[in-house]
Design a protein that fits this description.
The protein has 181 residues and is mainly alpha-helical. It has one domain. The protein is built from 6 helices and no strands. Helix 1 packs antiparallel against helix 2, helix 1 runs parallel beside helix 5 and helix 4 runs antiparallel to helix 5. It is rod-shaped and about 90 Å long.
Length: 181
């Protein structure tokens, strides 16, 4: 009998937001790019006018313009590569968390499965000791197993919400990258 994967009700929800993030990012990137270039031009032009109006020396004005242009170039590189860099950073955090937790994947379905597995192991260990025939032990083990499973379900829901929020922020946050200028 082939093993079927466990039923995962939470993954389709956050995966849907992952797809929407790509759509939001693509749409908002064009606006962010245009706005960034307008603000960069304004920043360099206004900075040069203010430095010259304050009667600064030519070398000082040139140095400050060069510093400003290098900073704008760096921030423009961050904007241009933000999609791949943000994805790489998020994936590295997910991989680090999965490695630290000792689970194959860090997603809500995997966490819920872990909770059910731990609760089942608790019940199995007690059943091997023949302690389930005692009513107090039976109730304690049942409540403990349900508590563990419920705790893992709450953590899985919280992870799902966190992933959804991260997709919303990274999808729409590209528009805010230009404000760092």
């Amino acid at each position: 009998m082939p093993l079927t994967p466990p039923l995962d009700a939470l993954s389709p929800v956050y995966e849907h937001f992952a797809v929407l993030r790509a759509l939001w990012f693509g749409t908002l990137f064009d606006y962010a790019n245009h706005l960034f270039l307008m603000l960069a031009l304004l920043e360099v032009g206004l900075g040069a006018i203010l430095w010259m109006a304050s009667q600064q020396e030519a070398e000082f004005v040139g140095l400050m313009l060069l510093r400003r242009i290098v900073w704008i170039g760096f921030m423009y590189a961050v904007l241009l590569f933000s999609n791949s860099w943000i994805t790489a950073v998020m994936n590295s955090f997910i991989e680090a968390g999965a490695t630290a937790a000792g689970v194959p994947a860090l997603n809500p379905g995997e966490l819920a499965t872990q909770g059910i597995t731990i609760a089942a192991k608790m019940l199995w260990q007690v059943s091997e000791l023949s302690l389930l025939w005692r009513p107090v032990t039976l109730l304690t083990v049942l409540f403990s197993g349900l508590g563990v499973a419920l705790a893992y379900f709450v953590i899985a829901i919280q992870l799902s919400l966190t992933l959804i929020e991260s997709y919303i922020v990274t999808g729409g946050g590209v528009l805010l990258l230009e404000s760092v200028l």
